[in-house]
Amino acid sequence: MNQNIPFFKYPDLFAPHSKELTEIFQTVSSRGAFIMQDDLSKFEKKLAKYTGVKYALGVANATDAMQLLLKAGGIGNGDEVIFCTHTMVATASAIKFTGAIPIPVEAGPDHLMDAISVEAAITAKTRAIMPTQLNGRVANMDAIIKIADKHNLQVYEDSAQALGAKYKGQSAGSFGMGGCISFYPAKVLGCFGDGGAVLTNDEEIYKTIKLMRDHGRGEDGNVSVWGYNSRLDNLQAAILNYFFDDYEGIVERRRVIANLYAEGLKDVKELTLPPAVDSDVNHFDIYQNYEVEAEKRDELKVYLADKGIGTLIQWGGQAVHEFRDLGFTQSLPYTENIMRVGLLLPINMSITNDEIDYVCQCVMDFYK
Question: How far apart are the C-alpha atoms of 247 and 309, rounded to whole Å?
Answer without folding.
Answer: 26
